[in-house]
Amino acid sequence: MSDELEIDTDDLERRMEGAMASLKHEFGTLRTGRASATMVEPVMVDAYGQLTPINQVGTINVPEPRMVTINVWDKGMVAKVEKAIRDSGLGINPQTNGTIVMLPIPELNEERRKELTKVAAQYAEHARVAIRNVRRDGMDQIKKAKGNGMSEDDVKFWEAEVEELTKKHIAVIDKALEAKQAEIMHV
Prior knowledge:
single chain, Gyrase A, domain 2, 4-stranded antiparallel sheet, 6 strands
Protein backbone atom coordinates (compact mmCIF):
# COMPACT_ATOMS: atom_id res chain seq x y z
CA MET A 1 0.00 0.00 0.00
CA SER A 2 1.27 3.42 -0.94
CA ASP A 3 1.24 6.05 1.82
CA GLU A 4 -0.33 8.78 -0.30
CA LEU A 5 -3.21 6.49 -1.23
CA GLU A 6 -4.28 5.74 2.36
CA ILE A 7 -7.60 7.00 3.68
CA ASP A 8 -7.53 9.01 6.92
CA THR A 9 -9.78 6.80 9.06
CA ASP A 10 -8.62 8.62 12.21
CA ASP A 11 -10.23 11.81 10.88
CA LEU A 12 -13.42 9.94 9.99
CA GLU A 13 -13.54 8.34 13.44
CA ARG A 14 -12.92 11.71 15.14
CA ARG A 15 -15.82 13.24 13.20
CA MET A 16 -18.09 10.31 14.07
CA GLU A 17 -17.11 10.68 17.74
CA GLY A 18 -18.10 14.36 17.46
CA ALA A 19 -21.58 13.29 16.35
CA MET A 20 -21.72 10.91 19.31
CA ALA A 21 -20.69 13.68 21.74
CA SER A 22 -23.37 15.94 20.30
CA LEU A 23 -25.98 13.20 20.77
CA LYS A 24 -24.87 12.66 24.36
CA HIS A 25 -25.25 16.39 25.04
CA GLU A 26 -28.72 16.46 23.43
CA PHE A 27 -29.79 13.44 25.49
CA GLY A 28 -28.59 15.28 28.59
CA THR A 29 -31.00 18.12 27.92
CA LEU A 30 -33.99 15.77 27.88
CA ARG A 31 -35.90 15.85 31.14
CA THR A 32 -36.38 12.38 32.58
CA GLY A 33 -38.12 13.27 35.82
CA ARG A 34 -34.79 13.55 37.60
CA ALA A 35 -32.95 16.80 38.14
CA SER A 36 -29.92 17.49 35.95
CA ALA A 37 -27.83 20.62 35.53
CA THR A 38 -27.70 20.02 31.76
CA MET A 39 -31.47 20.48 31.42
CA VAL A 40 -31.11 24.25 31.98
CA GLU A 41 -28.00 24.69 29.79
CA PRO A 42 -29.96 25.75 26.68
CA VAL A 43 -31.70 28.56 28.62
CA MET A 44 -30.50 32.03 27.60
CA VAL A 45 -30.94 35.01 29.94
CA ASP A 46 -31.27 38.64 28.78
CA ALA A 47 -28.31 39.87 30.81
CA TYR A 48 -26.93 43.37 30.41
CA GLY A 49 -28.50 43.84 26.98
CA GLN A 50 -27.49 40.54 25.40
CA LEU A 51 -28.53 36.90 25.57
CA THR A 52 -26.22 35.00 27.90
CA PRO A 53 -26.17 31.28 28.82
CA ILE A 54 -27.71 30.73 32.23
CA ASN A 55 -24.50 29.18 33.58
CA GLN A 56 -22.76 32.55 33.06
CA VAL A 57 -25.09 34.43 35.42
CA GLY A 58 -25.15 31.93 38.30
CA THR A 59 -24.02 28.62 39.71
CA ILE A 60 -26.19 25.62 38.82
CA ASN A 61 -26.52 22.90 41.49
CA VAL A 62 -28.56 19.73 41.94
CA PRO A 63 -28.98 19.47 45.74
CA GLU A 64 -31.56 16.66 45.56
CA PRO A 65 -32.94 14.29 42.90
CA ARG A 66 -35.98 16.48 42.08
CA MET A 67 -34.51 19.96 42.49
CA VAL A 68 -32.18 22.21 40.49
CA THR A 69 -31.00 25.46 42.07
CA ILE A 70 -29.37 28.44 40.43
CA ASN A 71 -27.44 30.73 42.74
CA VAL A 72 -27.58 34.00 40.76
CA TRP A 73 -24.48 36.13 41.29
CA ASP A 74 -26.12 39.54 40.61
CA LYS A 75 -29.25 40.17 42.69
CA GLY A 76 -30.63 42.36 39.88
CA MET A 77 -30.61 39.38 37.50
CA VAL A 78 -32.84 37.08 39.60
CA ALA A 79 -36.10 38.22 37.94
CA LYS A 80 -34.54 37.90 34.46
CA VAL A 81 -33.32 34.37 35.22
CA GLU A 82 -36.80 33.45 36.46
CA LYS A 83 -38.41 34.90 33.31
CA ALA A 84 -35.93 33.08 31.03
CA ILE A 85 -36.77 29.75 32.70
CA ARG A 86 -40.53 30.35 32.40
CA ASP A 87 -40.15 31.32 28.71
CA SER A 88 -37.79 28.41 27.90
CA GLY A 89 -40.49 25.77 27.48
CA LEU A 90 -39.00 23.47 30.12
CA GLY A 91 -42.38 23.26 31.83
CA ILE A 92 -40.88 24.19 35.19
CA ASN A 93 -42.21 26.91 37.49
CA PRO A 94 -39.23 28.55 39.25
CA GLN A 95 -39.40 29.64 42.89
CA THR A 96 -37.16 32.36 44.31
CA ASN A 97 -35.49 32.57 47.70
CA GLY A 98 -33.25 35.66 47.75
CA THR A 99 -30.64 35.14 45.02
CA ILE A 100 -31.40 31.42 44.70
CA VAL A 101 -33.82 30.32 41.99
CA MET A 102 -35.20 26.86 42.77
CA LEU A 103 -36.59 24.61 40.07
CA PRO A 104 -38.67 21.75 41.49
CA ILE A 105 -38.83 19.00 38.88
CA PRO A 106 -42.38 17.62 38.61
CA GLU A 107 -43.11 13.96 37.99
CA LEU A 108 -43.56 13.23 34.28
CA ASN A 109 -46.91 11.88 33.12
CA GLU A 110 -47.17 8.97 30.66
CA GLU A 111 -48.04 11.20 27.67
CA ARG A 112 -45.04 13.49 28.25
CA ARG A 113 -42.76 10.46 28.64
CA LYS A 114 -43.87 9.13 25.24
CA GLU A 115 -43.27 12.57 23.67
CA LEU A 116 -39.76 12.64 25.13
CA THR A 117 -38.96 9.17 23.75
CA LYS A 118 -39.94 10.45 20.29
CA VAL A 119 -37.68 13.48 20.75
CA ALA A 120 -34.84 11.16 21.82
CA ALA A 121 -35.44 9.09 18.68
CA GLN A 122 -35.21 12.26 16.55
CA TYR A 123 -31.91 13.19 18.21
CA ALA A 124 -30.59 9.68 17.52
CA GLU A 125 -31.68 9.87 13.88
CA HIS A 126 -29.86 13.21 13.46
CA ALA A 127 -26.72 11.54 14.87
CA ARG A 128 -27.15 8.58 12.47
CA VAL A 129 -27.45 10.99 9.55
CA ALA A 130 -24.27 12.78 10.69
CA ILE A 131 -22.45 9.41 10.87
CA ARG A 132 -23.68 8.48 7.38
CA ASN A 133 -22.49 11.85 6.04
CA VAL A 134 -19.01 11.14 7.42
CA ARG A 135 -19.23 7.69 5.80
CA ARG A 136 -20.12 9.28 2.47
CA ASP A 137 -17.10 11.61 2.77
CA GLY A 138 -14.89 8.58 3.43
CA MET A 139 -16.29 6.76 0.41
CA ASP A 140 -15.71 9.89 -1.71
CA GLN A 141 -12.06 9.91 -0.56
CA ILE A 142 -11.78 6.27 -1.63
CA LYS A 143 -13.27 7.02 -5.09
CA LYS A 144 -10.83 9.90 -5.50
CA ALA A 145 -7.91 7.65 -4.49
CA LYS A 146 -9.13 4.97 -6.92
CA GLY A 147 -9.02 7.58 -9.67
CA ASN A 148 -5.45 8.38 -8.60
CA GLY A 149 -4.32 4.78 -9.04
CA MET A 150 -5.40 2.91 -5.87
CA SER A 151 -5.59 -0.81 -6.53
CA GLU A 152 -8.92 -2.65 -6.48
CA ASP A 153 -7.82 -4.66 -3.41
CA ASP A 154 -6.95 -1.44 -1.53
CA VAL A 155 -10.32 0.07 -2.52
CA LYS A 156 -12.14 -2.95 -1.09
CA PHE A 157 -10.00 -2.84 2.08
CA TRP A 158 -10.69 0.86 2.75
CA GLU A 159 -14.40 0.54 1.90
CA ALA A 160 -14.63 -2.29 4.45
CA GLU A 161 -12.78 -0.16 7.03
CA VAL A 162 -15.15 2.80 6.57
CA GLU A 163 -18.20 0.51 6.59
CA GLU A 164 -17.04 -1.18 9.81
CA LEU A 165 -16.46 2.21 11.47
CA THR A 166 -19.94 3.34 10.42
CA LYS A 167 -21.65 0.17 11.68
CA LYS A 168 -19.82 0.40 15.01
CA HIS A 169 -20.96 4.00 15.61
CA ILE A 170 -24.55 3.36 14.46
CA ALA A 171 -24.73 0.42 16.91
CA VAL A 172 -23.53 2.69 19.75
CA ILE A 173 -26.21 5.25 18.83
CA ASP A 174 -28.91 2.57 18.82
CA LYS A 175 -27.76 1.28 22.22
CA ALA A 176 -27.66 4.84 23.66
CA LEU A 177 -31.17 5.54 22.32
CA GLU A 178 -32.50 2.32 23.83
CA ALA A 179 -30.98 3.21 27.21
CA LYS A 180 -32.29 6.80 27.09
CA GLN A 181 -35.80 5.67 26.16
CA ALA A 182 -35.78 3.13 29.01
CA GLU A 183 -34.60 5.88 31.39
CA ILE A 184 -37.39 8.22 30.23
CA MET A 185 -40.11 5.56 30.54
CA HIS A 186 -38.88 4.38 33.99
CA VAL A 187 -41.34 5.58 36.63
